[in-house]
Specification:
Elements (H helix, E strand, L loop, with lengths): L12 H25 L2 H5 L18 H35 L1
């Protein structure tokens, strides 16, 4: 008498390849998410990466604060302009001398 003709455990090479590919397609993203998703803050965090609130820019909202900020920016711009004009005059003198 011959063996049973049940082919439950017989796997064709093509079917084996596709089942391995399917397993990789399913398990690789799950493994990736598990590895990088668990305990993420403790493993990949850089201490003191973000600045403290005291070190960041504060946007002025009040009228007095806005005026003070505008005055500060104006004086900074005028100082930079004066410095630039001084450097240009210094370069102009060097060109006349040379």
């Amino acid at each position: 008498m011959g063996g049973s003709s049940l082919e439950i455990f017989k796997v064709q090479p093509k079917a084996l390849k596709s089942s391995i590919q399917f397993g990789m397609y399913i398990m690789f993203p799950i493994g990736w998410m598990y590895y990088f998703g668990t305990n993420l803050e403790n493993r990949f965090a850089v201490p003191d990466f973000w600045p403290a609130p005291e070190q960041t820019h504060k946007i002025p909202f009040e009228r007095d604060e806005l005026k003070a900020e505008l005055e500060r920016l104006r004086t900074r711009r005028l100082q930079a302009r004066a410095r630039r004009l001084q450097e240009e005059q210094g370069q102009g003198r060097e060109e006349k001398d040379g």
